[in-house]
Structure formats: C-alpha cells, structure tokens
C-alpha cells in the first residue's frame, strides 16, 4: 500500500497542498463522486503523469441532483474507494472526503451558484434542469479549496467537460484542464457508478447504447451530413432495443454547437437514454 493521506476538511487539504507548493511541487486534482472504478483510476493515472502530486476528492454533490433523481441512493463506498486508491500503486497522494458543510458552509439553500447559460440548458441540461449549475458550482468550490495546477476530467461526461472548460476560461480560473478517454467494459458499455443499478437483463441490453453511437459514427465517417435524420434513426433504434432515449445528437466537438454544413468541423455524437430506472450517457467522436 502506498502512502495515501485522507482528510475531510478544507484546512487539511490546504495545509498539505501548501507544504507541497513550498517545495516546488505541482498538483493535479481529480474530482469524483466516489464508488471508484477503472474509469476513475485511469484519470488518477493521467493526473500522476502531469503533476508531482495528485489529490482525489470523493463528494456526492447534492446541488447537481434534481428532485426525484438518485441522490439518496447514489452508491457511497468511501472505505472501498480508499482501499482501491491505496492499493493501486503510487498514484494518489491525498484523498479529500468532505462533509457537505465543508463545501457548502452556508448550507445548500443559501449557496452561491454559478449560472450556466446556453449550453447548460441543452442536451443533458434539458432533461436535468439546474444540473450543470450544480456541477460548475461544486467544481468551482473544490478548485478554490485544492488550488491545483491541473484539473483532470473524463471525456465520458463530455458536456460537463466542455462547460467546465468554459467556466475556467470565462472566470479566469488559474488551472489547466486535461481530459482522459472513456474507459469501457469489454462489451463496450462505458464504465459508470450507475451501471450497478441495472438489472441483469438491462445490463445485457446496455452496450447497445454504445453500439448505436458506433453506427452513427460510421455514417458520419462515410460522409453523411443529414444529421437530423441520423439522430432520429438512432433514437428509433434505441427505442426498439427497450431504451427511453432523452436525446441522441450530433454536435461540433469543439464547443458542442449544432453543426452547420461547415463540413470541416470535427463532430461528436452524444446520447442519454433510460433503461428502466437507470439513466445512461455516452458519446463518441466521429
Ligand atoms: P463521477 O464520479 O461520475 O462524478 O466522475 C468523476 C470523473 O470521472 C469525471 O471527470 C468523469 O467524467 C470521469 N469518469 C466517469 N466515468 C468514466 C469512464 N468510464 N472513463 C473515464 N472517465 C470517467
């Protein structure tokens, strides 16, 4: 086991990070909601490769869940997370597991929020109103606590990645954002803490989300530009497979804008779909 310190206080993080800074070491930060899997670990490994020290946070952020969403049942497995990080070789140096009151000292109701206009209300923001406001609010708070040189995020949550890059730019936040690719199960299903909600029958169907995105990607690579038609076809496929899709959309990779006939733009296809009580998201760059 490696030397993994754990703290649940803002002061604890700041003291450790200041010690590293005074000896000239750089810091990378991987925020998570815990229930760590190989996708998270790939980001910790990436963080390790871009900085001298790695801080990982585990915090199930209440402000990014809407009413009726899975905040109460979201898997909380901090002891296992800690063991996984400590047992994974020399990867993380500090685990931050704050209580809600450390991150929201005035309480969630009084919390100052970051408004995310435009893209914040599209795609996942359309089905989850206020979600990205909660995401940006918590990432801003965590960055103020950790003050890392590098923020490491997963491409699995591509809209989140895009919006956090936008926040960092717009608020002149002194941090570099680095992203890592989506880690998948052997059958193509993107790894996610929410996969464990799936029944065995749903788990069998779940890889069809990725397969459907691959079909769309194939069509885009073959030169098709009838994006609306491709979106609609993919939604039909998912419905026939037993999903309830929230959306399938082809967007520009650089900013998630709706693509025009500007054929040079790099494209990405993104989807969110329900299987029973579980909401799955995924994306593929064309
Ligand atoms: P979460 O714990 O779901 O909030 O995710 C924490 C970080 O891990 C985010 O930056 C996610 O994009 C990233 N992440 C989640 N799942 C994966 C995956 N399958 N592959 C790579 N990164 C992931």
Structure description:
This protein is α/β, with parallel strands linked by helices and 286 residues long. Helices cover 38% and strands 19% of the residues. The chain has 10 helices and 9 strands. The chain is globular and about 55 Å long. The model has no long low-confidence stretch (mean pLDDT 96). Bound molecules: adenosine monophosphate. The site of adenosine monophosphate (AMP) has 17 residues, from helix 2 and strand 5.
Defining key terms:
286 residues, alpha/beta, six-stranded parallel sheet, three-stranded antiparallel sheet, 10 helices, 38% helix, binds adenosine monophosphate
Taken in chain order, the helices and strands follow as EHEHEHEHHHEHEHHHEEE
Share of residues in strands: 15-25%
Helix/strand class: alpha/beta
How does the overall form come out from the CA principal axes?
globular
Helix content: 25-40%
- The gyration radius over C-alpha positions equals 19 Å
Major β-sheet profile: 6 strands, parallel
- Put simply, the count of helices is 10
Quaternary form: single chain
Give the names of the bound compounds.
adenosine monophosphate
Main β-sheet, spatial strand arrangement: 1-4-3-2-5-6
Low-confidence stretches: none
State mean pLDDT (0 to 100 scale): 96
N- and C-termini, Cα separation: 40 Å
Counting DSSP E segments of at least 2 residues, the number of strands comes to 9
């Amino acid at each position: 086991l490696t030397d993994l310190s754990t703290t649940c206080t803002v002061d604890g993080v700041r003291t450790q990070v200041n010690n590293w800074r005074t000896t000239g070491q750089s810091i990378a930060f991987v925020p998570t909601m815990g229930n760590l899997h190989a996708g998270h670990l790939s980001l910790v490994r990436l963080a390790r490769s871009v900085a001298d020290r790695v801080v990982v946070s585990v915090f199930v952020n209440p402000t990014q869940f809407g009413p009726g969403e899975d905040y109460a049942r979201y898997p909380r497995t901090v002891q296992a997370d800690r063991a996984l990080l400590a047992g994974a070789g020399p990867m993380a140096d500090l685990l931050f597991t704050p209580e809600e009151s450390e991150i929201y000292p005035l309480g969630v109701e009084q919390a100052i929020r970051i408004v995310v206009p435009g893209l914040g209300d599209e795609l996942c923001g359309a089905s989850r109103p206020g979600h990205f406001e909660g995401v940006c609010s918590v990432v801003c708070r965590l960055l103020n606590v950790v003050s890392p040189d590098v923020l490491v995020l997963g491409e699995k949550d591509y809209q989140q990645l895009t919006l956090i890059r936008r926040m960092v730019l717009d608020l002149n936040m002194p941090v570099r954002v680095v992203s890592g690719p989506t880690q998948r199960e052997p059958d193509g299903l993107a790894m996610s803490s929410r996969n464990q909600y799936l029944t065995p029958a749903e788990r069998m169907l779940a890889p069809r989300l990725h397969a459907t995105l691959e079909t769309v990607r194939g069509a885009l690579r073959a030169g098709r530009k009838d994006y609306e038609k491709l979106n609609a076809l993919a939604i039909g496929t998912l419905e026939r497979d037993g999903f309830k899709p929230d959306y399938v959309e082809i967007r520009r990779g650089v900013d998630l804008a709706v693509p025009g006939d500007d054929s040079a733009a790099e494209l990405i296809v993104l989807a969110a779909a329900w299987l029973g009580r579980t909401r799955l998201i995924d994306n593929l760059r064309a």
